[in-house]
């Protein structure tokens, strides 16, 4: 009979093996540090302690007014002395997002918000954290496991991105399409009022377009580049610079009509600047774009420029055709041109504020100051340069307005494509501020201009009417008054 001792030792080893494995596991666990991370759909780095990101991908975005859930995952987070850990979540910008977990909501204080929870009494645990987007922007969510005395054991940061809601996106699209239709109707009216012989003369001696080209594509880009240093963030500087490099907008033709400027010159300059934008915008982006924001490929919206050129030329050709084939209809459309232009200005201002109100809330004092000064510096430079070149009053009005009013729609489109959302939306606040703050001062100036023209006609209008200047009218009234007094004295005598 064989000796059973070797088999007994082997049996004992098999019985003690689970105990040994449990002991090794316990020793390893006790020596491993507590770690925190966020589970999918959040994206976390491979290295321990690296930050996580959520909402930056197009496929998985956190939009305003929507809620998504991520899990805070803890490993080996059980205190050895039998005490309890606690979890503290800090939202660094409570304006951007709201946190809830286990039925508890964040408590706001001084722009930040905190949420404290007791940690589960297990070694490995998860907590579902609900993230609700409240406004577009960026915020950091920092999760900390800490002891009762406040000593931090482990932490992880979630970089959260919130983009604009679908409702706001739809409102912006509706506004854009509405403006496109109304501007096309306005350009048909412009075509009815165009004098092709004047346009040919302007193109034959393009002094006015040359002045406008220098003002728009030399002064405005340099001016916007310098003014951009008011901002600390490079995205905002890029927003202002892109606005300054954009061609003249369709609103410039409308304002030229309202101020009695040279419509033929204004429309010609708009067409020239739109075509010139094909090569001038890339040139300025190449020269100064990389200085403002490095490692970002700025996309030139060639398709948008082409679309705008088509929207400019086609309605004008329709208007010219109406003038040739249906002159009575053309005369009627010319009569309603100014009321339509005024309606378009009010519509763009009111509906633009409604559809882009979320961006207007982002306008700071810096953005407001820059948004006001950029167009008015353009008005001033265009006026001074055209006066220096000896242009007449109507041409000066057209050149000044064409210089100061930029195609902000094109610059917004360019920023949306160059920067990831919501950085593109935040940078687009600058052209939105420019577009919003330009009409109100112009309306005030228009009211003053009309009142002055009514009570004290300008020299150009008076000469056509066979009268003198305003000062001459006052002198004539005084002379008539003196003659009446002399006649009265003679009658009394």
Describe, in plain words, how this protein is organized in 3D.
This protein is an alpha+beta fold. The chain has 2 domains: 134 residues, Sandwich (Immunoglobulin-like), CATH 2.60.40; 300 residues, Na+/H+ antiporter like fold. 60% of the residues lie in helices and 15% in strands. It contains 19 helices and 13 strands. Strands 2, 3, 4, 6, 9, 10, 12 and 13 form an 8-stranded mixed β-sheet that branches. The chain has a 5-stranded antiparallel β-sheet with strand order 1-5-11-7-8, with no helix packed on it. A hairpin with a 2-residue loop joins strand 7 and strand 8. The longest helix is centred in the middle third of the chain and has 30 residues. It starts with a helix and ends with a helix. About 5% of the residues have low confidence.
Rounded to an integer in angstroms, the radius of gyration calculated over CA atoms is 35 Å
Find the CATH topology of the largest domain.
Na+/H+ antiporter like fold
Helix segment tally: 19
The CATH architecture of the largest domain would be Up-down Bundle
The domain count comes to 2
> Which whole number gives the mean pLDDT?
78
Largest sheet: 8 strands, mixed
Structure class: alpha+beta
How many strands appear in the DSSP assignment? 13
Terminal Cα span: 170 Å
Strand content: 15-25%
CATH class of the largest domain: Mainly Alpha
Shape: elongated
What helical percentage do the residues reach? Answer: 55-70%
Model regions low in confidence, pLDDT < 50 over at least 5 residues: 23-30, 460-474
